[in-house]
Design a protein that fits this description.
With 223 residues, this protein is mostly helical. The protein has 11 helices and no strands. α1 crosses α4 and α5 packs antiparallel against α6. The protein has 2 domains: 63 residues, Arc Repressor Mutant, subunit A; 157 residues, Tetracycline Repressor, domain 2 (Orthogonal Bundle).
Length: 223
């Protein structure tokens, strides 16, 4: 390989790394401002200034303000540096492989407790701003509907174990999980009432077992 080709590849690699770092700074600045100031008060110009880039760079790297917020939510949900569809996330794969309903719920309680630490603050900003901003209202609807679909799939997976209460429909199971795993519950108990993340995780698992399963494990029944 010629030195010229090596130099061009090196330059391209360097530009790509710089673009990734720029995007990271933009998203970090956007997250800080949205959470501190709210959606309405946060402008692309404010984000650009905090990230040390131009407004045009923000638009080129991520997009306008709704796209910035959506990207932050998607990354918080995935827990990685790129959006990951719900069924492909690591905990979802492990849940499908787990044979028992209790095991599936334990994995999910762990996952929800961990991810809500990232997601809940953003979801509360999104919820509060959606009524006044049509662009965010659309994001809220899409994410809410996607969560509901994912919970329906989770309910079917739980039902496949034969361990769910027979008086519950799949829609009822999905709605119970959908309601209790929300950002509002996490925020009220962990942020407002001072629960630890571990206590919240245990409460989720205990509640799901009591509400959904035919036979409640001894630890939950006796607690």
């Amino acid at each position: 390989m010629s030195d010229d080709v090596k130099a061009r590849r090196y330059d391209a690699s360097g530009r790509q790394a710089a673009a990734v770092e720029t995007r990271r700074r933009i998203l970090a600045a956007a997250s800080e401002r949205f959470l501190a100031d709210g959606y309405a008060a946060t402008t692309v110009a404010v984000v650009a200034r905090q990230a040390g880039v131009s407004v045009d760079t923000v638009y080129a790297s991520v997009g306008p303000k709704p796209a910035l917020f959506r990207e932050l939510v998607e990354l918080a949900l995935s827990g990685t540096d790129r959006p990951v569809e719900g069924g492909a996330r690591e905990y979802a794969v492990r849940m499908r492989a787990e044979p028992s309903a209790t095991g599936k719920l334990a994995i999910y309680a762990d996952a929800v407790s961990e991810l809500q630490g990232r997601v809940a603050p953003l979801f509360l900003v999104l919820r509060d701003a959606a009524s006044a901003h049509p662009d965010l209202a659309q994001v809220w609807r899409e994410i809410t509907e996607r969560r509901a679909r994912n919970m329906r799939r989770l309910a079917a997976d739980l039902a496949s174990t034969g361990e769910l209460r027979e008086d519950l429909t799949l829609d009822e199971v999905a709605d119970v999980v959908w309601t209790t795993n929300g950002a509002e519950h996490y925020a009220m108990l962990v942020r407002d009432r001072g629960w630890s993340t571990e206590r919240f995780r245990w409460w989720l698992l205990d509640s799901w077992q009591r509400l959904l399963l035919k036979d409640v494990p001894a630890a939950s029944a006796g607690s």
